[in-house]
Amino acid sequence: MIEFDQKDYPNLSEEVLFNRYRGGDTKAFDHLLERTQGLVYSQILRYFKKRQQADEIFQEVFFKVCRNKDQFRESVSFKSWLVTIARNTCIDHLRKKQRTPFIESLDNPEDDQRSLSETLPDAQLAPDEIANLKLEDSQVAALLQQLPEEQSETFFMKVMQDLTFEEIGQAMNCSANTAKSRYRYAVSSLQALVKRREFLRQVV
Asked: Hey, how many other C-beta atoms are within 10 angstroms of the C-beta on 167?
């Protein structure tokens, strides 16, 4: 049985940890899960606010990660690969939900109105992850809903999930330059929306 040195886990990249897991190091996957679960949960909570459904999708995402581990390419960022799986899983569930809206309403009669930071599973999150979630709880979320979806999601991935433009491009199947342009458009649009709100607040 191969023995792995676990002391250097905090210093290893997500790609190295995942490759260790693929080589049989299950502890590496546990560490990787702890490191990235905030990233995945924030992605899921963009689409689904109910705790039970979010938990189920969260488990499904990591089940797919394990099942498709041999499909991971080392040339791709693990975070972008993970976000892509989470994003596609959410979209699949949204399509199912659109086909069965009545059943969905019976199964979940009340929406979970807790904030995003409150709906996260019990875990030790990094300070930047907590800050990002608090930011999403603010008025930024409402402003993002007024943007085109591609701009909104690009801004979310850059600011809330701290992905690089290369990683965003990989997750959204576009170039890094396209991701950068979408982000700039999103920032410009958000600035205009904020100025408009401030103006309306002053004249009302």
From this structure: 24
Res 198 pLDDT > 80: no
21 vs 15, 31, 38, 74, 123, CA distance in Å?
Answer: 10, 10, 20, 13, 21
Q: Is 116 exposed, middle or buried (0-12, 13-18, 19+ CB in 10 A)?
A: buried
Q: Is the pLDDT of residue 4 over 90?
A: no
Is 37 in a helix, a strand, or coil?
helix
Residue 191 has pLDDT above 80, yes or no: yes
CB 108 within 8 Å of CB 54: no
Q: What is the DSSP letter of 12?
A: S
* All residues at 6 or more sequence positions from 107 whose CB lies less than 8 Å from its CB, including other chains: none
| pLDDT tens digits, 105-134 | 334 434 444 444 444 444 444 444 444 444
Domains and CATH numbers, the chain: 1-122 (1.10.1740.10), 138-204 (1.10.10.10)
Contact present, 112 and 134 (Cβ < 8 Å): no
CB 146 within 8 A of CB 185: no
Outline where 68-139 has alpha helix (H): 78-99, 101-107, 116-119, 127-137
**Summary mean pLDDT of the chain:** 79
